[in-house]
Fold this sequence. Notes:
With 507 residues, this protein is an alpha+beta fold. It is built from 17 helices and 24 strands. Strands 3-2-1-4-6-5 form a six-stranded mixed beta sheet. Strand 15 and strand 16 (405-408) form a beta hairpin. Helix 4 crosses helix 5.
Amino acid sequence: MKRERQQPILEQRVLGFIQQHHLVSGGEKLLVAVSGGPDSVCLLHILVKLQRELEVKLQVVHLNHQLRGAESEADADYVSHLAQQWGIPATIEGRDVTGYQAQHRLSLEEAAREVRYSFLAQVARSIGAERVAVGHTKDDHIETILLHLIRGTGTRGLRGLQPIAVWQSASNSLTIVRPLLTVRHQETEDYCHQHQLMPRLDASNLSLSPLRNRIRQQLLPLLESYNPRVAEALLRTGRIASDDINFLDEQIARLWDEVAQQQEKSIVLDKERFDQLPPALQRYLLRASAEKLLSSAKDIEMRHIEEMMSLATKPAGKRLSLPGGLIFSIEYKQYLLTSDFAALSPFPILGDESQLNIPGETLLPGWRVEATIIDREQMTEKIIKGKPEGASAPSEITIPLGKGKGIKGMGSINNLFTAYLDLDKTGDKLLVRCRQPGDRFQPLGVSQPKKVNEFMIDAKISQAWRQQVPLVCSPEHILWVVGWRIDDRVKVTDNTKQVLRLEFKRC
């Protein structure tokens, strides 16, 4: 009799939790992921009872992971029978999780999770459902907090499971709702027993191989021997962490545009403004940046964030490789987090060396070079002195990267990509190439030749761009590091008769 009085209370608790967190909307289709175990069977039974009140149309979805042979087949048959018995449409399919694991070099748990959620997303899209309900319980929530603590995921990981979450991959996304998050696993077993549902038992849950199983069977009982109320302590920690994260989310949203700029596969952080932030916001901004670039930042652990924080104190040119193919790089005025350095460079990748048509137009990969010969008398006084009209100091200008985008501090695309040279000193047999080991030239205003690499370091040219900066060369020496400085020996002087005007334009 006691259990009979408890069951309606459980259903009302689940209903209240769904309504409190707005887990479903009236009139929508709701997928219910059913493995056949007590948690998911309890969830389905309760939702069937509540579907009229919630005004939702249910559909069962089950994935056979093909990991336990006949037992996996029996699980699928059991779920199919339940769906038929309760008049709920069902989608039941199998996937080769082991093959996926080998192909992507993942742990079995990671492979199963990715395959499962990808399958759920595909089914949801095919039937027009926006959400899938899963049977995660309060016990799963507690285990997840411990799992994240062990793995070092930081404050965000200490939140554990949330009532609503979004799973994303490169090609799919899925909204996950967890109606049983305040229900203990023992309660779902009692519920199934009371209603004679006879759920399936997964023998793999008894294995100590998965870390989560070891936490459930070994670590939690050990912790309870130290503190019988350790579960409550962990749940309290999760609530506090969730409040902290919500506050940090608001702060990051407020300051994002002041500090960060996303450019396709990269995020540029303004170094000066970033360094002024409190460490808590710095860490969270780095984490948020990684999440924006990756479909899932689950592999970015707290140790990776700390490694980035440490690297940010180092000189420009330092780099750090991160999970997901990301690279964190220290530049002169920015911190870069990117999976594609080439995409950040304002310079296209140069091919083989190319001869310039003088006078005339030359097409290079990503560039159109216009060469014009003009008389000395046509030059303005500023150009004679080696400074193109309107040019400013490189540290005050922006190079456009595309529509509305730019990176400060590297020179004017309009002025510094135009050079005026003494034609008699340059000759007309010029070529364009990228830098080579040992390259030297004599920068304008300098009395002695200098290594091109040293010049680029002093000019604070990003290390990622240096190989893409065009060099205009004669048979004798380098005449112009395009975008920065001409060679002092070919500058226009009072004795110059004809001037070679070169202009590089992006195309």
